[in-house]
């Protein structure tokens, strides 16, 4: 061994033959040695053992390779090493761990660091694609077709990054990967267990994904913010807690810190902020081997000084690192609230990161947080859907409307309309609900029909589309909302009274919406047309082309298994329904517009998934401008001609090409 220099030697070698030994054969001893080294503040890795593999139960004697300068006691940060911030939650779910994690990312970006994010969901589902919106909120679709937790949407919107399906780690994915390895024989006949095999797989996944750039630039990110879903103590999250406990030693404690989000409730009768739930939550977390460096305390009002001191004393966290996370006027103020309490400075100090003194969040404050609170002129959008009892089911749609309103200087009001309440059957069953639904629809400045699945409420959505078409009310349809617009047009303009989608009517004589031939009829998970895909604009003389700045094609995310029947396109276009966007084969309809209407636009894709606070979706902006009576003025300033593809080549345009909109430009 001594004849081989450091550059020639792999991490783990046989002391006898100098041949590479499979990591799995040494798994237990390798992990134990690494953890022991990290715990004692050593920055070394094991080269090899003097003990043969067969003597697995004995203590091997390791020959060490120096990885870098010896760390100080406690594990000082390594220069250039990946940094990790873990965000956990306690007491109850729904405290805002995702917003907290996103806000930490915003602050670290403002300090000049490149940030990526990972969301860990302890459920056994492989992904969120088959989960009910009522149970889990919306399914957020990523560029690579990953169907993920809605928190990944928060990360993308706050940090302006593009994540992949690997950034959402679930128990189902981990077990699936480990079982596949076991079937291949990768574990050399060993008994596969939660510890070490599942926990090691989790650590390897996190480390691999953390080193993947997500901001469109080359090179490795500086910091990875990890959110652990659920609450501390949940049985489902125990393997992840154990894996992360080990991981902090694997990467060195100076490269890892934990932020714990907990509830500080106020008992109505007493009116006192109670610390006991947080004390118990932190005690549970510490007993599992994770010590929080910061406490993010959710409450309705700012923490009282005495409460902060009490939490610091009982939770073993410095008082300056106990953050008050009270209710604010909008979620974009959360990063500013954390900055005011020095959260960025604490994290940078603990992880050995620079830039805290140079943090600049002025743009975030002026153009997002402050601007949202300063909007006064109201615009009302009727959201006609089937999951209206849970706003999280349409979270990205809501956020895209907010982004568009900030660009258009309008204050948003959403009137939620349960689609089935617009139907005649409801009039006899619940006349009050029927009248209320129609009152909201008729009083709205614009109508939006978002995506969805199944037949419930479809007739109500068709009635909403008919109302918008016949009354010149601005209409935006998304995914199912586009199919609804086509069905309504077929019934009431083409006269095909029984026109329908084969999704809920297999026997319709006019199947204007049909199942895509490449879809699966036996498996639902991950079998739809998913992810970012090209939509080629067919003409420059359309609203969509002008909103997208008249480029040749746009790149948006999809999630559907049904499409407009391509065999019937001629009849629709002859009657005035224009398919102005198609896929790159020209056979799949992507964008439809109605001629001679102020704004009747629908898209098969989901433009909401790429909308950002300072980069609003063009189609959502179009809806808000049309609903405000400002669309014509806005479009009159847009260049309509485009150069031919032969001269320029096709160029993709994503949401955000109109990021610099100002009130002066729009003259609103």
Automatic annotation (TrEMBL):
Keyword entries, A-Z: ATP-binding, Glutamine amidotransferase, Ligase, Nucleotide-binding, Pyrimidine biosynthesis
Transmembrane segments annotated in the record for this chain: none
HAMAP family documented for this protein: PyrG
InterPro entries: Class_I_gatase-like (IPR029062), CTP_synthase (IPR004468), CTP_synthase_N (IPR017456), GATASE (IPR017926), GATase1_CTP_Synthase (IPR033828), P-loop_NTPase (IPR027417)
Function: Catalyzes the ATP-dependent amination of UTP to CTP with either L-glutamine or ammonia as the source of nitrogen.
Gene Ontology biological process terms from the UniProt entry: 'de novo' CTP biosynthetic process; pyrimidine nucleobase biosynthetic process
Protein family according to the UniProt entry: Belongs to the CTP synthase family.
GO MF annotation list: ATP binding; CTP synthase activity; identical protein binding
Species, as recorded: Micractinium conductrix
Domain of life: Eukaryota
Signal peptide range in chain numbering: none
Protein name: CTP synthase
Pathway(s) of this molecule: Pyrimidine metabolism; CTP biosynthesis via de novo pathway; CTP from UDP: step 2/2
E.C. numbers: 6.3.4.2
């Amino acid at each position: 061994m001594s004849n081989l220099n450091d550059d020639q030697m792999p991490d783990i070698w046989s002391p006898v033959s100098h041949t590479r030994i499979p990591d799995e054969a040494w798994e237990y001893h390798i992990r134990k040695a690494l953890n022991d080294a990290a715990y004692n503040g050593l920055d070394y890795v094991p080269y090899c053992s003097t003990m043969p593999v067969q003597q697995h139960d004995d203590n091997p004697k390791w020959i060490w390779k120096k990885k870098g300068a010896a760390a100080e006691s406690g594990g000082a940060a390594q220069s250039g090493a990946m940094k990790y911030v873990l965000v956990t939650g306690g007491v109850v779910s729904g405290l805002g761990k995702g917003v907290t994690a996103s806000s930490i990312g915003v602050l670290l970006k403002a300090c000049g660091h490149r940030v990526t994010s990972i969301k860990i969901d302890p459920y056994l589902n492989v992904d969120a694609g088959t989960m009910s919106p009522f149970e889990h909120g919306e399914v957020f679709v990523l560029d690579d077709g990953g169907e993920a937790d809605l928190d990944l949407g928060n990360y993308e919107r706050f940090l302006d990054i593009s994540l992949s399906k690997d950034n959402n780690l679930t128990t189902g994915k981990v077990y699936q990967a480990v079982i596949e390895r076991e079937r291949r024989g990768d574990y050399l006949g060993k008994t596969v267990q939660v510890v070490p095999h599942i926990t090691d797989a989790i650590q390897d996944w996190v480390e691999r994904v953390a080193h993947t750039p997500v901001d469109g630039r080359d090179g490795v990110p500086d910091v990875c913010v990890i959110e652990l879903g659920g609450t501390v103590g949940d049985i489902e999250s125990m393997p992840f807690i154990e894996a992360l406990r080990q991981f902090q030693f694997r990467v060195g404690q100076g490269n890892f810190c934990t932020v714990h989000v907990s509830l500080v409730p106020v008992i109505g009768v007493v009116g006192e902020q109670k610390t006991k739930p947080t004390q118990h939550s932190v005690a549970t977390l510490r007993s599992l081997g994770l010590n929080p460096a910061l406490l993010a305390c959710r409450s309705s009002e700012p923490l009282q000084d005495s409460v902060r001191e009490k939490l610091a004393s009982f939770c073993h966290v410095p008082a300056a690192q106990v953050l008050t996370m009270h209710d604010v006027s909008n979620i974009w103020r959360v990063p500013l609230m954390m900055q005011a309490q020095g959260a960025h400075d604490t994290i940078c100090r603990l992880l050995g990161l620079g830039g805290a003194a140079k943090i600049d969040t002025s743009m975030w404050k002026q153009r997002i947080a402050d601007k949202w609170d300063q909007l006064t002129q109201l615009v009302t959008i009727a959201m006609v859907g089937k999951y209206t009892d849970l706003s999280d089911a349409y979270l990205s749609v809501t956020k895209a409307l907010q982004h568009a309103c900030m660009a258009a200087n309008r204050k948003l009001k959403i009137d939620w309309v349960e689609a089935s309440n617009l139907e005649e059957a409801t009039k006899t069953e619940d006349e009050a609900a029927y009248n209320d639904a129609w009152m909201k629809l008729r009083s709205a400045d614009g109508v939006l029909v978002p995506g969805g699945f199944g037949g419930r409420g479809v007739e109500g959505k068709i009635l909403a589309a008919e109302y918008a078409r016949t009354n010149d009310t601005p209409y935006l349809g998304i995914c199912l909302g586009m199919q609804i617009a086509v069905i309504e047009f077929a019934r009431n303009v083409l006269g095909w009274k029984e026109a329908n989608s084969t999704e809920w009517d297999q026997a319709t004589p006019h199947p204007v919406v049909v199942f895509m031939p490449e879809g699966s009829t036996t498996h639902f998970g991950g079998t739809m047309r998913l992810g970012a895909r090209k939509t080629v604009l067919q003409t420059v003389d359309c609203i969509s082309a002008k909103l997208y700045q008249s480029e040749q094609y746009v790149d948006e995310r999809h999630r559907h298994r049904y499409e407009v029947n391509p065999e019937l396109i001629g009849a629709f276009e002859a009657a005035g329904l224009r398919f102005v966007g198609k896929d790159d084969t020209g056979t799949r309809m992507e964008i439809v517009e109605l001629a001679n209407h102020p704004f009747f636009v629908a898209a098969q894709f989901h433009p909401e998934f790429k909308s950002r606070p300072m980069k609003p979706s063009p189609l959502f902006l179009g809806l808000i401008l049309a609903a405000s009576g400002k669309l014509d003025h806005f479009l009159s300033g847009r260049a309509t001609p485009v150069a031919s593809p032969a001269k320029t080549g096709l160029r993709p345009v994503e949401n955000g090409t109109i990021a610099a909109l100002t009130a002066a430009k729009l003259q609103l």
